[in-house]
Amino acid sequence: MSTIQKIQAEIVEDFGMFDDWMQKYEYLIDLGKDLAPIKEQYKTEDNLIKGCQSRVWLHAKHTDGKIIFTADSDAIMTKGIVAILINVLSNQSPKDIATAKLDFINEIGLKEQLSPTRANGLVSMIKKMKLYAIAFNN
Amino acid sequence: MLDISKIREQFPILSRKVNGHDLIYFDNGATTQKPQSVITAESNYYKNENSNVHRGVHFLSGLATDKFEATRNTIQNFINAEHSHEIIFTKGTTDSINIVASGYRSILNKGDEIIISELEHHSNIVPWQMCCEQSGATLKVIPLLDNGSLDMIAFENFLSENTKLVSVSHISNTLGTINPIEEIIEKAQAVGAKVMIDGAQAAAHIPINMQSLGADFYCFSAHKLYGPTGVGVLYGKEEVLNELPPYQGGGEMIKEVSFKKTTYACLPHKFEAGTPNIAGVVAFKSAIDFINGLGLSNIAKHEEKLLQYATEEVLKIEGLKIYGTAKNKSGIISFNINKLHPYDIGMIVDKMGIAIRTGHHCTQPIMERFNIPGTARISLAVYNTKDEIDVCIKAIKKAKMMLS
Question: Number of folded domains in chain B?
Answer without folding.
Answer: 2
